[in-house]
């Protein structure tokens, strides 16, 4: 007999718009489920309505041991568990706690595209709106680096990550080195 695993958090991949159905079913089976949502206003022809939508479309989180994996996979609306090398990937408790804290007030959180250093971005808001450059991170600060090709120089502007959007095909390019920023 194999030892009983202690429960851990795992991500579950669901069919599009089946997150709530899967959550309700899994919860009815005694599995702890987290479906983080955000609050937004949707406009129909005749009215506006406040709705709660999944913060991570097509995903929810379960706290269980892997002995219940088959049961989870048989739930209505569930495609699979997020795996690497054929093994379900545990999610750190600290990450789940951060999601819970962030979604305590669903009207204060919204989804944001995943950005990383090297992505070509455009500043959307504020005095620098419309400026494009390369996203970098330096000492826990995000910056947009703008190149002045004629002079073969660049400048870096500190930005709030929530004000930028990825531009182009979503391809990353090599992030400039710190010597380019200071040069």
Task: Walk me through what this model shows.
With 183 residues, the protein is of the alpha+beta class. The chain has 2 domains: 8-108, NusG, N-terminal domain (Alpha-Beta Plaits, 2-Layer Sandwich), CATH 3.30.70; 120-182, no CATH class. It has 4 helices and 14 strands. The strands form 4 sheets. Strands 1, 2, 5, 6 and 9 form a 5-stranded antiparallel β-sheet that branches. It has a 5-stranded antiparallel β-sheet with strand order 13-12-11-10-14. Strands 3-4 form a two-stranded antiparallel sheet. A hairpin with a 4-residue loop joins strand 3 (37-43) and strand 4. It is globular. Mean pLDDT is 83; it is low at 170-183.
Share of helix among residues?
A: 10-25%
Reported CATH architecture of the largest domain: 2-Layer Sandwich
The number of strands is 14
| Helix/strand order | EHEEEEHEEEEHEEEEEH
Low-confidence segments: 170-183
> Which structural class should the secondary elements be placed in?
alpha+beta
CATH names the topology of the largest domain as Alpha-Beta Plaits
Largest sheet: number of strands, sense, barrel closure: 5 strands, antiparallel
Gyration radius (Cα, Å) is 21 Å
Strand content: 35-45%
Number of domains: 2
CATH class of the largest domain: Alpha Beta
Number of helices: 4
Distance between the termini: 64 Å
Short description:
With 183 residues, the protein is of the alpha+beta class. It has four helices and 14 strands.
